[in-house]
């Protein structure tokens, strides 16, 4: 991954029904959701059942619909897993996840997140803060923290 960004905020998937009419405008076409999501957040975590069956043409579309610094973090699947060839798509085995992912729903303590960000600032290793449930308030608080800390 070739990015100078240290902290990436996002959710597990970008299709949360509760976001319609709040985060997403009511009249936003479904095929524009990722483009809209990418204007506010820096990454998305995709569970293996979601990304495994995606066609190569769809991956190309997703990569084209997101900015150059946007990252797709993929839950690993079986041994036959083949992710798209892009530096913006990361396969995340459990050891990598333990080191690089902060689950906002499980650890909503922003002081603890700030400490983790500070640790990553020393090593310059990226940190991804994701919400499994798509809790926008937690995601926005984490993004505000990222900004206040200068990352």
Q: How does this model look, in words?
A:
It is a single chain. Helix 1 links the parallel strand 1 and strand 2. The two termini are 17 Å apart. The chain is built from six helices and six strands; from the N terminus they run βαβααββαβαβα. Strands 4-3-2-1-6-5 form a six-stranded parallel β-sheet. The protein has one domain. It is an alpha/beta fold and 151 residues long. It is globular, with a radius of gyration of 15 Å.
Q: What's the arrangement of secondary structure elements?
A:
Elements: E1 7-12, H1 33-37, E2 43-46, H2 48-51, H3 56-64, E3 71-74, E4 89-91, H4 94-100, E5 101-103, H5 110-123, E6 127-131, H6 136-148
Parallel strand pairs: 1-2, 1-6, 2-3, 3-4, 5-6
Helix pairs in contact: 5-6
- Pick out the low-confidence regions: none
Give the CA-based shape.
globular
Query: Helix- and strand-based class?
Result: alpha/beta
Mean pLDDT: 92
Please count the helical segments: 6
Radius of gyration: 15 Å
For the sheet with most strands, the description reads: 6 strands, parallel
Strand order of the biggest β-sheet: 4-3-2-1-6-5
Order of helices and strands: EHEHHEEHEHEH
Counted up, domains total 1
What share of residues are in beta strands?
A: 15-25%
Care to count the β-strands? 6
State the distance separating the first and last CA atoms.
17 Å
Helix content: 25-40%
């Amino acid at each position: 991954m070739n990015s100078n960004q240290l902290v990436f905020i996002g959710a597990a998937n970008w299709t949360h029904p509760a976001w319609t009419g709040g985060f997403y405008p009511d009249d936003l076409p479904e095929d524009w959701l990722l483009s809209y999501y990418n204007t506010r957040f820096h990454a998305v975590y995709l569970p293996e059942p979601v990304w495994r069956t995606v066609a190569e043409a769809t991956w190309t579309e997703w990569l084209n619909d997101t900015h150059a610094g946007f990252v797709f973090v993929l839950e690993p699947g079986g041994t036959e897993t083949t992710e798209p060839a892009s530096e913006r798509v990361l396969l995340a085995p459990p050891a990598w996840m333990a080191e690089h992912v902060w689950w906002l729903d499980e650890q909503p303590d922003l002081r603890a997140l700030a400490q983790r960000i500070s640790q990553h600032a020393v090593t310059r290793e990226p940190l991804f803060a994701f919400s499994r449930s798509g809790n926008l308030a937690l995601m926005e608080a984490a993004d505000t923290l990222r900004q206040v800390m200068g990352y």
